[in-house]
User: What shape does this take?
Amino acid sequence: MRWRTTAMVAAVVMAAPLWALDDIHTLPSLDKLAQRAKESVDVTLDASMLQLASGFLSADDPDEMRVKKLVAKLKGIYVRSLEFDREGEYGASDVEGVRALVRAPGWTRIVGVKSLKGENSEVYVKKEGSQVGGIVVIDTEPKELTIVAIDGPIDPEELSELGGHLGIPKLGRGKTKAEKGSSKGDQ
Amino acid sequence: MTPFEEQLKQAMARREPAEDFARRVLERADREGGQQAESGGRRVGGKRVWFSALSGWFHSPRVLRFSAAAALLAVSGGVVFQQHEQSERGEAAKEKLLTAVRIAGVKLRQVHRHVLEVETPEVEQ
Assistant: This one.
């Protein structure tokens, strides 16, 4: 009897990291929120869909070739982005379901930013040895909620190289509040 | 080239059939088809004459040719449709992928900006 319990616990612990990212797009709380959202983006690309999509990326387009290189080893990309008409359409409990998924072993929160304007960001990474085996970004704003989950080995540097392409702002050293203040003063 | 190879080459050389070859083959096929239908009808004592006639009709060269052409058309149509469907699925997947990468990139950029903007960011390692 004891070995059965041990086996079940081991199976659950081992399975936890596997279902973590796949379940982000099927969270009931997000589906309910999507019904109230003004705009909703739901992208679910598993390994086979990524492979299919990669085959259609143009070799003549440098931006698309960058994307192809980036997603070559990925197992999945999941994006849920919800935009609401009013503030307060979703609460902390709605996001808690996503946070629970990245509490699985192997996941670490590397960034947590809270601002007075209610723009909060969290970045979780899954460490696989010295490599990053997955990234989850949870970005909450008063009228917007975005969750990005990338499953598989990814080099954040490669993702940052996409800055300035595909409509992504260039990743550089942004201006801090102090810098903004001084530049205002200069004008 | 050895004499044997020369003979083999001559034996295997392409020869045009007689002018009436196609007509003779079709006539013979029609004749044999008719005979089969007749013998089938006799065997069952007239009860399944319509079946034998239908069977003979299906075995007639004209119907066989038409059936082969229809099958070829259906198969090639299916292949073209499948390729078109695969292409549409691929293009849709590509658009989804580009959207996902775009959103991921923009959000990571925003996080980067937040880290720089917030005076006391909570950064855990």
